[in-house]
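Students often ask why we bother predicting the structure of a whole assembly rather than each chain alone. The short answer is interfaces. A chain on its own may look different once its partners are present, and contacts between molecules only exist in the joint model. In this exercise we take two input lines together and write out one structure for the complete complex. Read the inputs first and try to guess which parts will touch.
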Amino acid sequence: EDQVTQSPEALRLQEGESSSLNCSYTVSGLRGLFWYRQDPGKGPEFLFTLYSAGEEKEKERLKATLTKKESFLHITAPKPEDSATYLCAVQGNDYKLSFGAGTTVTVRA
Amino acid sequence: NAGVTQTPKFQVLKTGQSMTLQCAQDMNHNSMYWYRQDPGMGLRLIYYSASEGTTDKGEVPNGYNVSRLNKREFSLRLESAAPSQTSVYFCASSGERGYNEQFFGPGTRLTVL
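Now the answer. The structure tokens for the assembled complex follow.
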């Protein structure tokens, strides 16, 4: 069974204080690792897909990296608008997505 | 494009009542999904439809039924609601049963008393 564990559960940052979120996974045949952003009361919003170890993708202040066992989402010089819950999901051989519980990031001005 | 739309946004039911959650997408996607999201847990797949005319069980299908009405619409039915089905329900769609990302609707918050 595919499993995804995200840490920490919550992260409080000062504006400009860079940090990283972790996503550890076990999956039978990784077809893709996905990062989503979810604002309160809304549906998840797609950020990145990573397909193989060593791959990196960037979007504004966010950078996602992938190894064979985990992925990191780096937030560089965060702003209050980066406050959200960040979800990680893996897609295995059965094409289904398995989600982690998420990391809630709060950025204070 | 509206993307993925869901109705209703909120619903309160009594134990034993039935209801249908509606989902529609205007992106011409083949695959559609129903998830539930509970506090402290990840999104869990209830049912999915890889293409029009097909449906399959996900991780937590008990107590639910689905209908892929056409390529655009995928509904989720609770025949006899239970308090354990109190949750936020999300519908999603994707272009292919493969690498493409899933696009999510705004969710339905359901409370079963």
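Check your guess against this: The radius of gyration of chain B is 13 Å.
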